[in-house]
What we know:
Blueprint: H1 12-26, E1 50-56, E2 60-67, E3 77-81, H2 92-96, H3 99-105, E4 109-113, E5 129-130, E6 133-134, H4 173-189, E7 196-201, H5 203-214, E8 219-225, H6 236-246, H7 252-255, H8 261-265, H9 268-278, E9 281-285, H10 299-325, E10 331-334, H11 343-359
Parallel strand pairs: 3-4, 3-7, 7-8, 8-9, 9-10
Antiparallel strand pairs: 1-2, 2-4, 5-6
Amino acid sequence: MRGAHEGRRRSSGGWLKKSVLGVAVAMLLPLGASVAAAPAANAAFNPAGFDFWVDSAEMGPVKTRIFRAADGNTNRVVYALDGMRARQDLSGWEIDTNVAQALTDANINVVMPIGGQSSFYADWNAPSSLLGIEGGTGSASGSGTLSSSGSSSGSGGLQILSGGPGKSYRYTWETFLTQDLRNALRDRLGFKSTNNGVFGLSMGGSAALTLAAYHPDQFGYAGAFSGYLNISAPGMREAMRLAFIDAGGYNVDSMAPPWGPQWLRMDPFVFAPRLVANNTRLWISAASAIPAAGDVTGVMSVIQGMPLEALALANTRAFQVRMATLGGGNATYDFPASGVHNWRNWEAEVYRMLPDLSAHLG
């Protein structure tokens, strides 16, 4: 299916030039260093949600925030994945946006997993370590509250040998989301465990497509906003290496060895044929990297947010071309004429996606 927002598309020459610029700048500026937009009206804790704890064999007790559909149904379920700087207390979606209310008003149950900083929501090869030296102690439930959410600012490079989630134990997020949490939601809350939706921003956008590709019975709908959808492109692994160091002091090599099967399995550009074969309903978006009104909240909001969104746009355009060569007609592409790598952009994208998401759940 062709994108529903044709007017927002750019000519191939224009986006290619921006792509090259974005990749070059991103090598100097870590992926995880973007800034958040001004908080939404009801930012931070939303009393409409409740904590839902589920044990993971390797990660220990993991918290998820649940927001129930307004009509009380248990058939319509969507997972909302966070960004690189996912906190241990609340999701960036809850802290910085109003999407939970919009989704529940549309009679959709919302599942927000908490934690997973720099994880890409993957099953890692090993606990994060540098030169064989593990970080300090930490657990999924007790590593403390990080200072920023989603893809917001603040360097964690000095934390590379410190404790934190995924350092004293191995991240197993894919297993948790597709087995432990899925089964607990079904058994304890009665949630339907098939034909769910999943969406995310940046790191979470890439992960949403991965989950849908390899678990099509669970996820029939996936949305990726400003995602890194071509991670095997030249320079991307080293850009991610810098991002992981900056966002909590993680080692990308602990996640997956370079260019091996585990790494390629995580690359949406590589596994795109699965999404076509599964006929997964997709909503794919990246903005132009041109600030919109309200995006410029300080110098760093421009210096950081623009190149990161340009890189996401380059990755997303490459994925779009890949899908087209495969004959995939199962994706809607939205390329807003303005917007940078921030929560303001991602919140607006959820609102645009919502009618399509609502029509394809349950």
